[in-house]
Amino acid sequence: xxxxxxxxxxxxxxxxxxxxxxxxxxxxxxxxxxxxxxxxxxxxxxxxxxxxxxxxxxxxxxxxxxxxxxxxxxxxxxxxxxxxxxxxxxxxxxxxxxxxxxxxxxxxxxxxxxxxxxxxxxxxxxxxxxxxxxxxxxxxxxxxxxxxxxxxxxxxxxxxxxxxxxxxxxxxxxxxxxxxxxxxxxxxxxxxxxxxxxxxxxxxxxxxxxx
Length: 211
Fold this sequence. Notes:
The chain has 211 residues and is of the alpha+beta class. It has a single domain, classed as NADH Oxidase (3-Layer(aba) Sandwich), CATH 3.40.109. The chain contains eight helices and seven strands. Strand 5 and strand 6 form a beta hairpin. The protein starts with 5 loop residues before the first strand and ends in a 13-residue tail after the last helix.
C-alpha cells in the first residue's frame, strides 16, 4: 500500500546561492550574485515539489532488486524506505524555452536552481521517513545498483500519480526527479564495502551511497 502524496513548500526549500554558484561555476561574491538570486526567486515560482515514500517490508525490498548487490545487503541490516521525489515539469519547460530563445545564462542558472531544489526535496523526504541523522540514501545507478531497478521501484510507489514516468532509457521525466531508498541502521553497518568503492569512478561520493 502506497502512502499519500507529500507536498513540499517551495518557498521554504533551502536553495543555497552558494550551491547554485558551485554547480554553474560562478565565483561567489562577484557580479554573478544578483543573477543567481534572481534565478532562485524565479525558480521558486516554478517549483511543484512533491514526493511519496513507503516503509518497505523485506518482500518489497527484494522486489526492487533483480539480484543481490551491496546496496541490498546494507538495506537488509536496518529499516528501508522507498521514495520518489520531483519538482514537477514547469521549471524544466521554462529552461528548455530559455535555451531555445538563446538565453543560455538564464537557462543554465535556472536549471541549477532546479537541481538544488530537487536535492532539498530529497532531504525533506529523508527527514520525514526517519529521524536518524546517520540514515543515508541510495539511488539506482549508484554503488552497483542497476538503473533498471527504477522500473519496479517506481511501480511500487505508483510514481505516475506524481507525474513521474520512466523512459526506455531509464531516464525519468520530469528530469528533476529522484527515486531510491533511505536506509536507517547503526552507522557502521552503512559503510559501503571497500572493494566496491575501489572499482567505482563516481565523483563526490563518500562511500555510503547517494542520490
